[in-house]
Specification:
By secondary structure, chain A is an alpha+beta fold. Chain A has helices at 38-48, 108-115, 130-146, 186-201, 229-238, 259-262, 332-353; strands at residues 5-6, 11-15, 22-28, 66-69, 71-72, 75-76, 81-86, 151-159, 162-163, 208-215, 243-248, 266-269, 272-275, 283-284, 287-288, 293-299, 308-312, 318-322. In chain A, the strands form six sheets. Chain A has a five-stranded antiparallel sheet with strand order 1-2-3-7-4, covered by helices on one side. A five-stranded antiparallel sheet of chain A has the order 9-8-10-16-11.
């Protein structure tokens, strides 16, 4: 149980480290006969790609999607689908300085403690490059969900202390990618971009929040005890590099409300049962209720910055470390497609799981 | 994959609904030869029990722990350990009014959508009584962890808008149970109790936050990709009834920091490598680093209050609902042992998983 | 992964040892709304029960089925169904002689090696009594399958060297329970009974073969690589106490045939595609083809006999052992319902798994 | 749960079909720090390779092992190890004749029933080429086991009706590969080869039996209920293409013995507890006892022969089919490394699982 597989029925196993041959995903459990839109998947990869704008890292990774198995005449066959990208533009020597030293707030020390060794080149398996495999698999899930009218959307709602308008419903989420920070509130987006540029000029980094919304999701998804829909979704998000928190619906702010304020009253609107408010964030008792699923994901400031830091090495000696290589000053713009990918995988898994909920 | 099992190697399967025969847990994967302290487990059950104080529900459930299998001469044998409590003091007729109607922000509607039916008595499987089984299993995990010097502690850090001092390290966590709200900051505790009493007098409910701390945990636990330690811990917490959010270390507030402020610098203190700050909350790259693991869990205000609410019934007709039965005005004091139980289960599972991390 | 759970979607976790409180099964993943026929399940328990005839062990275990969770108004609710029987008529002192010594060809020595200890009373978890939990769970699966017209039948086809007519198709399998050895070939049955009586008189035991047939199974069940239908079925059978071999279709005897003899030619009989012969035993490429599934399970002679044997004890000293207690001279008549139960569980699991095979 | 993953802690996920880009395995759960001998793995691949002798199919697949991820400086890192081979020498047009027709005793019909479609080229995922991925993963397991002195050996013990001497212990298993049929009894080997040549000349095929022996295995492996060692081993073997039966120890022939003959008496030989006989085949109560593990695997005659056969097509019409392409007249010589690979994977998985059996 080394944790490289995600999902129960829609099972995604990722492999590959930063400076190996390939990074990829074996996607098992995709029902046969699904049309796989490779252009859609390539487009998601391009959204995640480094170097796409002035505020993201300038590594140049072409990241062309390769199909290693599982497709026949453009459709899934029931066999595992393997998608991968080759590693390129690697500068392993950029990482020689950490072969022996532990970068603060990275996984260097903990890998060493766990495994007794580590592939230090580019962070090895702990590299953000591993998330490329998630986007590949999430793309397959998006094909599945889109065909059923389920839309998975994410956007940047906070960078540093700058927050977009809390009522995101008044913005058109289709415009998220219109600016490089991927915030649909264009006024806030400008401020966020300025902040990131300032932080970058300082050789520093800053955190942010990605908000996710799932629309068109049917009621009934999720398992009511340990595998509550929001518990699996939360785990999916928390498994993304640099994530520090997850909340859905009213989240941490709902704590201060009274039950009589917080409860979402049911109403029948033209034959459709829905709720007047959505503090539940689309999930009640761990099961989706047909309302939009809304959640927020906190990303810490990236650990690699260009300022000098003190640390220790494998021998326990004090060392000075100064970040090198090419890194993002703020991870959230590129995290948007990753959040969407993990949400799509979680959702598709629960759609399949729910096929066994009733006898008939 | 109906989600009634938690864990990979330390696997806990819970069963039972509010008004059935028993609620219990089959605890599989406990190594043989562990002394199981049934008094400790009974004590945890008593901490979770309704009716223990004036601010908790007055149902009288004796909740005596019964051993159905797996122990021999006071120790685990390698066979599954089954612990259970009998259901008693049930007033099924208290729930007749919801056989047909959907209570707002409960699982009534979503169960009906998922399963096409539901056992409405006492909420059935969605009842908070299900958490008793978690406390039973968590008790076994606590026996395992205690023998290795690992301490799992939780306490109430917020009720409604009242927060305890954010620096919890200055309080003695051994005093948590000294007051009925289970907050180690006695000043804040008094205010919290007053608030709960006021809310209760209003027939209303209020939310809260439980903070968890794990001390004495070795470095190296957690799997670095999907099963990051904090991802599994987060899922564990989010699977508890009424939880809306989870964060660890700096959490959502860390978002606003710069990387140069947020990074936890390593230092060698008398041969032990540790970090100067602990924004990482004891976990880096998904793997524990030997520092205290710190996390916060948001609980919404309980959905059952005594005020009149509008809703719909199975026929889609508008109905009026008024809470009956005996319920907690605020769930967090009784949630403390449940948070500890889930944390202990997660931790024990990862201790066992880590036994395969190295070849030698 | 202690292996007390069987199945992927229809997941059965068994618990309990010979001389504990209860033996039972938590049955997870049963779709909601299935009518559970408790009489059918009790009847299966009675077929497995010791003491049902002169050729089975004379222990008197009433084995009344108890429902601990998961049923509401006679139907499954989607929650885990827990069924159990209480342990009774235990004579723990019958087993004192093996607290220290290892019975030949039992699990005494291997448990001790694995766990460093064992509950020796009645064989503990290795007792054949564990199979009662399988019959409980198998009963639920039989309810599910029967509603879809799938019949699971098993019968004794060999005892010692006495085999029934190899063409079992000419016998009425509904008559299997008409004789105490459960062989539908009444001529062979008589000889088998005589043999068992003779062996019993000698204080000895003898092995046998149980043949299983599944009729009415749709094509398409089974997963084509590791979880081939017959691989999961084989594992299910091999997991039953005392089983030494499994074959399906032509099995070991098919080895000697040529491909041109062995191949099952397809034909279209009134719009239904079937095969002329059934050397495949109803499974091709690991997936059912709609023909009857046929398999054979070899049971060794029970290890407990009443003759004196040499062995060693925990100290490695030579000891003399003589079987005591009440045991079956031949296990196969009572194994028939167990074989059926495991086959039913395997089948139901694959019916549910197959719900995700196609996109539409 | 599409069944492309094998194992609990040592988890192998295979991917790839006959005429896709690659066939490979993601090997998860290999402890860090294990030296991986790529030459050993290549050698195993060469043993499985088609065209290695006159009695195997003449397809020319170079099958060079490629490392896609998980190794660093020749050792495992704890990250998933991905090994693959490229597909070459494909003649997809050789399979056009079965795009529409169902070959007897192949998986054509059942895939179509399960998935509603199939990749017919070279049998797609049902191709024997899938077993190459198993040999890759088995090679990693062999590296692990060899370092602990555990030897996994398999050999051909029967072809058609020709059996080698039943007492295989008098032959040197190191000589297995000395002849092309891989039978250590050179006299029997000659007859087997003659038989295969004759069958091949007839355009026909014939079945066989592979015997496996595991030496140096410690006592204590295997889980005592559903995941008995021999149950998992049996499933592993039954999951190999063309396998029809599995037995261990005395197997089907043990049925005819009396308990007093069949029991393996314990003895203390110079401080080592062992058994006088080994009818148990090294496994008692599902747990290894330290004696050699012995098992037999039945392979049916390959379904593809060159004689004319009748069948039906997708439209249900009668068709004539005549095998084309290059195929083995008898699969067992090439099955030897596959049997070893599956045994090694099963064993390594249980070695890791057993690390959690005891508390201390």
């Amino acid at each position: 149980m080394s944790g490289n597989t995600f999902g129960s029925l829609f099972r995604v196993t990722t492999f590959g480290e930063s400076h190996g041959e390939m990074v990829g995903a074996v996607i098992d459990g995709c029902p046969a006969g699904l049309a796989i839109d490779l252009e859609l998947i390539q487009n998601e990869m391009d959204r995640r790609r480094p170097g796409q704008s002035k505020i993201t890292t300038q590594r140049n990774e072409a990241d062309r999607v390769q199909v290693l198995s599982g497709l026949f005449e453009g459709k899934s066959t029931g066999a595992p689908i393997t998608l991968a990208i080759r590693n390129q533009d690697q500068r392993s020597q950029d990482y020689d300085y950490i072969a022996d030293a532990f970068r603060p707030s990275h996984a260097d020390y903990t890998y060493e403690q766990k495994y007794g060794r580590r592939d230090h080149r580019g962070g090895g398996r702990s590299s953000a490059r591993e998330t490329a495999a998630r986007v590949l698999a999430g793309g397959v899930a998006k094909c599945f969900l889109a065909a059923q009218g389920i839309l998975v959307r994410a956007f940047v709602s906070q960078v540093g202390a700058i927050r977009m308008d809390s009522n995101f419903r008044k913005f058109d989420l289709n415009l998220t990618d219109e600016n490089i920070v991927r915030c649909p509130d264009s006024g806030a987006a400008e401020k966020m971009i300025s902040l990131i540029e300032k932080v970058q000029a300082d050789g520093d980094t800053v955190g942010g929040v990605v908000t996710g919304v799932i629309m068109g999701c049917p009621a009934g998804l999720g398992e009511p005890v340990f595998d509550k829909f929001h518990a699996d979704l939360g785990k999916a998000m928390l498994s993304i590099n640099a994530v520090k928190g997850f909340e859905y619906g009213s989240g941490f702010s709902g704590v201060a409300l009274r039950g009589s304020e917080h409860n979402d009253l049911f109403e029948n609107v033209n034959g459709k049962i829905q709720t007047v408010t959505n503090h539940s964030g689309g999930v009640q008792g761990g099961i989706t209720n047909g309302m939009p699923i809304e959640f927020r994901v906190a990303f810490k400031p990236v650990a690699t910055h260009l300022k000098q830091q003190t640390s220790v090495n494998r021998q326990g000696e004090s060392v000075e470390i100064k970040g090198r290589g090419r890194h993002d000053p703020c991870v959230v713009p590129r995290a948007v497609p990753i959040v969407e990918a993990m949400a799509a995988m979680t959702l598709m898994d629960h759609v399949l799981r729910n096929r066994s909920s009733k006898y008939e």
